[in-house]
Amino acid sequence: MKLLIDMNLSPEWVDVLASKGVDAVHWSKIGSPTAPDKEIMEWAKSNSHIVLTHDLDFGAILAATEAEAPSVIQLRFQDIAPDRSLQLVLDVIARFQNELEAGVLISVDESRTRIRLLPLR
Known about the structure:
121 residues; alpha/beta; Rossmann fold; 6-stranded mixed sheet; 21% strand; globular
């Protein structure tokens, strides 16, 4: 499983996830920092990456296009620093590994996780 870290999250996520055995790359190492979300989604789909983001636009793109990929994990809480929210992300990855590989939108906040299978209709 490979994660693509969106621009609205710190590049620190890459090293923190790597220390836990998760393959990740930050968008700033791949494309333009001002690239539209649609371009990020297309790259993630073409390169079999799951998008990790704090941006609601990715869910909207999945819904509008009825896409079956890529999977998206949306962080829906304020403190998105890796040292504060890493365990939540790792728990989601472990708990929903099969679903993430199949195609889902997962919204994570401090108290619950919501999962929707793709395509969104």
